[in-house]
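Our consortium's second objective concerns turning raw sequence data into structural hypotheses that experimental partners can test. To show how far this objective has progressed, the report includes one record in full. It was chosen at random from the queue rather than selected for favorable results. The single chain below, 390 residues long, was entered without modification.
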Amino acid sequence: MSGTRRATIADVAAASGFGVGTVSRVINGAANVREATRMSVLKVIDQLGYRPSHLAASLSRGTARTMAIVVPHLTRPSAVMRLAGALAVLDEQGYDTVVCNVDTPEQRDHHLAALTKRHRADGVLVVSLRLSREQLASFHRAGVPLVMVDVPAPGVPQTVTDDVAGGQLATEHLLSLGHRRIGFVGDTAARVSATDLGFASSQYRLAGYRRALAAAGIGYDPALVRRGPHGPANAEALAAELLALPERPSAIFAASDTQAMGVLTAADRCGVQVPGQLSVIGFDDIESAGLLGLSTVRQPLEHSGAEGARRLCALLRAERVTPLRQQLALEVVHRSSTAAFQVTGPAAARPAAVRRPDRGQCGTRRPAGLAGAAERKHHTSSRRGGAMTR
């Protein structure tokens, strides 16, 4: 049949040779259907690419409806916060929710393929995972409502923030405090491969860092940039390299709060005072950032999950979702881990190099706690990216 029209239950009945009532009983899992009949009807359903309207069936039966959320690395704090926001909305709207955790490209592809076959869910919310053109086309062909959170996708409702603007905000905060030698700690550059999920937020935040430096007339120094696998332990090792430089940075921008915690641990281990000798800013504003007094760029994690879920529910009600691209605001939260650079003289134009720490001290001293944990008072200082655009 034509690829421009979705198959209907009547098409399945005509192609299988059974009546619409029989096909309906197969779709709804009725017990009074012979196994041979069931298998014949299911085979035709697969051949025609027919997707039963579970929404209509569930409403007629008065049963709960089902949404699926596909999210990577479910234990990461940012994923937990986005998921919490989405689940609160879906629960309020009376949906059952299936959460599909993704740690590998194979898991991603398996879940996405399964969600476009027959009845699996009324709608799907994909968080922080880029979909290929083929995967997007599969959802369109199957008629499965789809909403993205934290990643763009052509023709699909999406709730996002501007990571380039966020990286610029973080760096501008440090520049405003008088810092000029500013380091960066982030993720390894994203790759499109069979073993990589292709996260790009760290790369975009690095671009914002470079943009802010350029606007301030400061040249980009690759020696001040360290990138590696995501996680606090790796960030700690990368930050220790920066702190061992002959002329080490007076401030470090970490591409996530999780990595910023690694930077704080490295500073503590190397005997570098935060914020007296080193200012540190992160990105996300997860719950522990406030407890540690970490300055950060706050993105509305829980709100983004909630907005994505609301937009998905609107699609299920056959409402027009506008704008297609919903961009949420970012803001700097200034806490105790960042402070003004201590100028030693009226003629100083650049921060003087802080004394290089003893390598043995960095290598043998055990962490005794993260700097700035005692001070929890904070205030917001700037905001960017709140416009909604199509």
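The partners drew two points from this record. The chain has 14 helices and 13 strands. The CA atoms of residues 68 and 124 lie 5 Å apart. Both points have been shared with the crystallography group to help prioritize constructs.
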